[in-house]
Amino acid sequence: MNNSDPRYDVLIIGGGVTGTALLYTLSNYTDIKNIALIEKYSDFGLVNSASYNNSQTLHFGDIETNYTLDKARSVKRMADMVMKYVENEKKSESSLKLFSKYSKMVLAVGKNQVRELKERFPAFSQLFPHLRMIEREEIGRIEPRVLEGRDPEQEILALVTEDGYTVDFKKLCHSFVNNALRKNPILDIHLDTKLLKITKVEDHYMVNTTKGDMKASVVVFAAGGHSLMYAKSLGYGKNLAVLSMAGSFYTAPKVLNGKVYTIQVPKLPFAAIHGDPEVHNSEVTRFGPTAKPIFQLERHNWSTFPEYWKTFGVGINPIISLLKIVFDRVLLSYIFVNFLYDLPVVGRRLFIREIRKIVPSIKLDELKFAKGIGGTRPQIVNNTTRKLEMGEAKLTGENIILISLRLPAHQHVLGMPIQMLR
What we know:
By secondary structure, this protein is of the alpha+beta class. The protein contains eleven helices and 20 strands.
């Protein structure tokens, strides 16, 4: 060990929106000064935080029908922090356009969904006072193509709010870093720096990287699916595995004015099909995501194939868990159909049926597969319960926090616990 290796109070691994948000939070709201961040790529936010790798949505829990009221209350508290941050940045002289704002609604189609949404509204309207329940006529005024071509006898209902934030999370990463450096100019930022190994040595961690060795009293991993790989190397999370789900999208010329979500299937941990305007181009509507399992921790990056298996684990327990999860009748059907959506020619013809639940009159020639768009959402598998862990996962140990956030969980980035870092 080299005694000249730099030692930090806190070392953050990962330069996506979670890691950079923690950098900003620690710099602005604690007295910790000796902080560093390492990122293996040449820029911030190039993986799941890139706009082409996620649905660009700041989730509050108002139109996400798979959220319970308690879950929505927690998510809203976190999302409000990000909302206030980006709104404040808009008022500043920042040249970064971090977000666009649109209306957003969740659309119920058919008698059962309409009843479900009506039952949901009273409690959620207390938490979200700007949320309104609207019927066919007003739905048509806000989103004309939701009504165009729809059976006039079909029951529809929607919950709508004007507070729909479409966020460029990569630019948000840069904003966090810039503001962190303004507050604490001595921060150490190491790009193009890949973590090779981490070990616990007495009262600190020894961190070996491609740019040399570092020491840290506290380490926070904010590296998506990779976090669990590092956790296992330190003896944490041995009962967990990662199921990487790749999401793809289709695009069309502007057919929606804002965000339109559909009712979530309760048993599925994956987002229901929805339509969103592109964050920097409202003339394009993006539909998705699809979902299919892949054996990589990062989409389109085959170098993460062996890392995936380190994270998943080789043994009978993870295999049994995976088989039990995948061969669930509902999930198996869902995965099979979503695999077809990504196929040339046939995929577009199948996927348009889902989109027509939102835009009945959309034509096949309006729709195209968004090549190169769509990232990976790490779903945590619990090998003890043999179930998928819904939402984000966090492990804590001796002066260490390991975070594996699945998309879309960006609303949690300013709500990270910092009490153990003081």
